[in-house]
Hints:
The complex is a heterodimer of chains A (216) and B (542). Chain A is an all-alpha fold and 216 residues long. Chain A has helices at 15-50, 52-59, 64-89, 93-124, 140-176, 186-211. Chain A is 76% helix and 0% strand. The relative contact order of chain A is 0.17. Chain B has one domain: Up-down Bundle (Cytochrome C Oxidase, Chain A). Chain B contains 18 helices and two strands. In chain B, strands 1-2 form a two-stranded antiparallel ribbon.
Amino acid sequence: xxxxxxxxxxxxxxxxxxxxxxxxxxxxxxxxxxxxxxxxxxxxxxxxxxxxxxxxxxxxxxxxxxxxxxxxxxxxxxxxxxxxxxxxxxxxxxxxxxxxxxxxxxxxxxxxxxxxxxxxxxxxxxxxxxxxxxxxxxxxxxxxxxxxxxxxxxxxxxxxxxxxxxxxxxxxxxxxxxxxxxxxxxxxxxxxxxxxxxxxxxxxxxxxxxxxxxxx
Amino acid sequence: xxxxxxxxxxxxxxxxxxxxxxxxxxxxxxxxxxxxxxxxxxxxxxxxxxxxxxxxxxxxxxxxxxxxxxxxxxxxxxxxxxxxxxxxxxxxxxxxxxxxxxxxxxxxxxxxxxxxxxxxxxxxxxxxxxxxxxxxxxxxxxxxxxxxxxxxxxxxxxxxxxxxxxxxxxxxxxxxxxxxxxxxxxxxxxxxxxxxxxxxxxxxxxxxxxxxxxxxxxxxxxxxxxxxxxxxxxxxxxxxxxxxxxxxxxxxxxxxxxxxxxxxxxxxxxxxxxxxxxxxxxxxxxxxxxxxxxxxxxxxxxxxxxxxxxxxxxxxxxxxxxxxxxxxxxxxxxxxxxxxxxxxxxxxxxxxxxxxxxxxxxxxxxxxxxxxxxxxxxxxxxxxxxxxxxxxxxxxxxxxxxxxxxxxxxxxxxxxxxxxxxxxxxxxxxxxxxxxxxxxxxxxxxxxxxxxxxxxxxxxxxxxxxxxxxxxxxxxxxxxxxxxxxxxxxxxxxxxxxxxxxxxxxxxxxxxxxxxxxxxxxxxxxxxxxxxxxxxxxxxxx
Lengths: 216, 542
């Protein structure tokens, strides 16, 4: 790596030093995110423990097919993004561009399916907690609690996805400007870490929403 | 001398002279200027929270309460708690002193992420604005702990605004902690090994771990609470099968580590001052630094002791009680090591050292009374009484606020390039010590006698101690206003400070006072351990 061409800020001793530091900063940020979502998952599992039948009744009303398709879409999106990272390491900026655009589109597809198709369907089925909630009987409270977690958790994950689309879009813009090279692509790496983290959150949400409680 | 090759030519402008426009301050990325921006903001919040405290003490002068309405009183102590915890104690030492000295101490030019540092200040200010809105819109009456179901279903007031303020301030904490951790890992000067770092850096590192790992849990808890409050449906609602006690678990999973966020930086400040003013190496360096890490680790395992009387299982209470006792061990190690450091040292009683000595005494009382409330049987009697109030004020105010004042006096010459007036400094330390004890010691007795906290009125037999406490509060108020006055005075009329007025070791004293924007002309190289003062025996025989 040639320090003569790559600028770095005055607190660093070299461009590599700056790049490594940025990446370690992102890892630490992801640690905070783990604790952030960790508190949600803990509350979810804890509440489920005390309301098992109600949560099961709620989970059975979710739309498994869309959830599964979305899981595939999201994992593919991260995979494609990582392929782009491999391309820029090899110096192929054009392929990075294509990968980022595809990853962005897949992410957008996830959001459309989730909030444009699945949520309206859930609401139509009367699954929005509140007076109009459609599940009656002794499991009503627990099932409502499940859907509180469902709407809260997916909304929060969706916000993280939106943020992700924003930064992937930023990478697309910078790639088009020709900012990245085999020597300098730290932002691509850093955004990639975040984009993969959003998947990991979904990998926990997916069974919590769709799978547990659906079995015989 | 631990650092070589640091020259500080006088022709370079200091960071204070490097740009005088408002823009050069509000858009600065210089850690030293951001530290001063933070210093201004936390000072405002300190006096806002202090004003609420003054009204609380005013109310409690007579048994029936000087303030007519119990509701007003509830809103006052809630605001006092929220402001003092999240807008003063949690940020104060890291964002002011830490921000200023971390890069100087490790021989770096700035923090790893200067823009993130500025962003953290703006987040803090934004949070403060939201909080002040909540305050002037009428406040809220839940206490700073926002317990459900009171907060979610029953309380009247601006809960959502207050919770939003705390939520935003949390991002500021996370940004600061992340920045500090990465900086300490990545930007140390050549030769600055972990065991050559000043203790203050270790304690800030431990604090940062708590910022980074505990704050997000609070963020989620507050989101869930806000959601429940807005939609009247939520995970802490027992009518749906939710559990209000879950809120307490999540809240204290953050807030107990946060208690150590509020004291660890103070412990670090004292560990800098005691060796300097004893002209002696710190006693048991490795024990002191690892005790900071031990406190940070154990702090995550003790949250349950806030729920001994909230209906938790006896077995979990036993475990939490034992774990709480364990925190006392590393804390005591620090106290013993400071005393060991002073032993046979050449002790100078300058103002920072007086504050530090006051700190050691008050922190010890605060810590030991913590063992009383960590004991299951005693806690049944003492929980929710003034004993608890006195206990944590000894640690938070007698400890942390004293440590902050100690640190601000210690680094004042470096920060401003001016000396504070020494006699006024010593007088301030003494007045604060006396005022503090008079305010809070009677509260131990009140609590032991059974006076509950958070009540607007009390039985007449408790009046004597309450009047003593309120009288002490006026002395304490004078003690806190005094430094505000003479430190401000010294900015304009104080003597010019030399680069190293205390004869201290540490890289921050090797650069000019006030430092240049780049901190060091050439990156210093560290060749010797910290606190490398001459050994007393060698000095005597020599």
